[in-house]
Automatic annotation (TrEMBL):
Localization per Swiss-Prot or TrEMBL: Membrane
Designated name of the protein: Pickpocket protein 28-like
Keyword Transmembrane belongs to the record: yes
Keyword terms: Ion channel, Ion transport, Membrane, Sodium, Sodium channel, Sodium transport, Transmembrane, Transmembrane helix, Transport
Topology term for the membrane: Multi-pass membrane protein
Underlying gene: 106086075
Pfam families in the cross-refs: ASC
UniProt KW Transmembrane keyword: yes
Amino acid sequence: MLRLLCRRKVNATVVKSVTSWNHVERFVINISQPCEDMLIGCRFGGQPFNCSELFVPLVTDEGFCCTFNMLHPKYMYISHLPLAHWNVTKSTKYQEIDWFSEKGYPKELPEDYYPSKTLGVGRSLGLSVILDVQQGKYYCSSSSSIGFKVALHSPNETPNVRETGVFIEPGKETKLRIRPEKTESELNVRNINRRYRHCLFHNEGGLKYFAHYTQRNCEMECVAEMSLNYCGCLSFFMPKIENNATVCSINEASCEEAVRLGTYDMSTSCLDDCLPACFEMNYQMEAFATRLASRACVFSDRTLAKKNSTYVANNVAVVHMYFKENSFRSQIKTEFIGVSNFLSSIGGLMSLFLGFSFLSIAECLYYGIIRPWRSVRKYQKLFDDVENVSWDPPTLRIKSKTKRNNSLRKVLQTYPRGPKPLFEKKSKALPYSLTY
């Protein structure tokens, strides 16, 4: 079984016999270094603590780990509590509470609780631990080195130690300066389709195994689903999304690796649906290390009193984790431009360039709609009236020459001294006259 976990050649009969989920989890816990042996000194917020009060066991993709300030299992999982958490007893000093980025802490908090807040910035108020690698008890490692891995993650998600963990070398004192990165969203973002806002709220995840939606938790369930579809089994650290799922043996190791690296044709992969959370907290860290002194006195003389200098140089590591600054910048997702912003922008521009007001709206309606309509109606009516008028052609009359003298005589009799004609033409007869 140990060779199976170390990915070494094993007997085929042994491989076929390893199918029980609880059997594999229990074996991983039994062969791994316990937290009480790994952590030999702890200090938090400037006060010394028993490490068992701060750290709880957890099975991850790198095997058995010890986690600090993580959610209690009853708030973390929906079903199938991992075997490593079966023995997590209720702390006598700290009361467990539920926490996630969207809502944060409850309004009413007990005096001592976890996940707890930091007491301040700097190394003195951070978390300091002394680690003992116990190199002489090593049988195999997930890497080609000896030491520890540290991974920072949100309290409501399972860490990805294999891909994001930072190496801690024995015989050195390491400082990890933490820089938080928080993403928030305004309420109006919820009205936007998730395809365009590219994030999910806490109640939109719909996970089967984890009680809280984060992108990491979603990806873990997605990889577990793909492992079931392609390999027919799950790795021992994957979430048990099906009650009848079995643990993958060494025969399915290549299939597991192919699923993890995404070498299968996964054009419709569920990973595309694992969007970031609209409210999420991520942590970045900067690591600095220096060699420990031959007689290191980190917390007290009693901590390493039984360890000689050679053992300390080869097995002991000191780690300080703390926030660099007491404030940080958060990113807020919001609409690029909403309806109210659009209307206010248009109104501001029109007021600036046109002196726009409510009367201007009436003027725009009048000159843009009413007046053109009335003009069209007026000219249409005039055109209809013109079409109804009948036009008679002019009449041409030609009078006889014989009546000319009689007419002229009558005129002279009527106006004997009338006005002098405008012109006189000496002619015997006019050819014709036109009368309209």
